[in-house]
Amino acid sequence: MKDFIFTSESITEGHPDKVCDKIADSILDCALSQDPESKMAVEATIKDDFVLVYGECNTNATIDYAQIAKDTIKKIGYTEDYEVLVKVNKQSSEINSAVVNQENNEVGAGDQGIMFGYACDETPEYMPAPIFFAHALAMQLTKVRKNGNTDIKPDGKTQVSVEYKDNKVVRIDTIVVSTQHSATISQEELKEVIMKEVIAPVIPQELVDENTKYLINPSGSFVVGGSFGDSGTTGRKIVCDTYGGWGRIGGGCFSSKDPSKVDRSAAYYCRYVAKNIVANGLAKRAEVEVAYAIGKSHPVSLCVDTFGTGKYTDEELLKIIEKNFNFEVGNIISELDLKRPIYEKTSCYGHFGDPQFSWEKIKELEM
Q1: How far is Cα 46 from Cα 170, in angstroms, rounded to an integer?
Q2: Angle at 266 between CA 76 and CA 28, to 5 degrees
Q3: pTM for this one?
Q4: Which candidate, 244, 283, 271, places its Cα nearest to that of 362?
Q5: For residue range 17-33, what is the model confidence (pLDDT) as tens digits?
């Protein structure tokens, strides 16, 4: 299809699934800040005022899991008292030994799997327009709340439907914003706040028209939210975390995983490669797939698809990729400098598109 409408959604940091992602990545950062060689896979689940922190780790760091969970929830904006149960065991010695190949001291993949990276020229951040605008709305919703609007509460969702003509963005067809709110604000007052303070500052006026539809809290009252309105678990929002359904995803989540887990690090590297293909003018759209076997440093397969938009054939582009990029697990970790405590910042509003991260940098490619 060349003419179509495509929709992506985002969620705020107060959504219960994102609360758990932020807890998990805060724990990871705590470990890496003390021991950069930490191997972590510690997740969280939340319901009402109860949090379960669980998983496996191999680290020399001293971690107060319960306190990190409580501090994270408070930082997000929830004021209730939470009970935290911790069940964290040492990482399996079999998995740990597979990560480091003792014969040649190479870093092996922490698991098997497939990873994808995607980029396009629709936005300056090389992200698809629907997820870019959905994230922008979710971030603005949080900004309005944290800047002092006490009627807006932490839990929220956004959704943007973008109309394409001849595969180009022409307008925004529908905007959906659902936000938790105080019991004292009316739906009419809430809609006015969302239109003026959330939508207007981030959505370009040239992309909306008299036919654009605005659905603000379409279900009506949304006073009970967060973990008291729904349960949450780490790793359940992998489409929000990636490309909003536009690019393919491998299935593994990111949050909680240290960089030896290629679900995370190789997905970041695939984005890095795809973005550089587009940023260097070699294609208008690019998707890179890589696959690994547990304990093996080099990928078992690598491919690229530019959907007919490439300056070169995909076979020629693959050779350019192999000349400029090294998908060996140890190199990915080193080149992107992934042993730093940077992951709490990635846990909300998407892992891609923010120039502060190393996998978003652009370099000149050798042809």
Answers
A1: 41
A2: 35
A3: 0.95
A4: 271
A5: 999 999 999 999 999 99
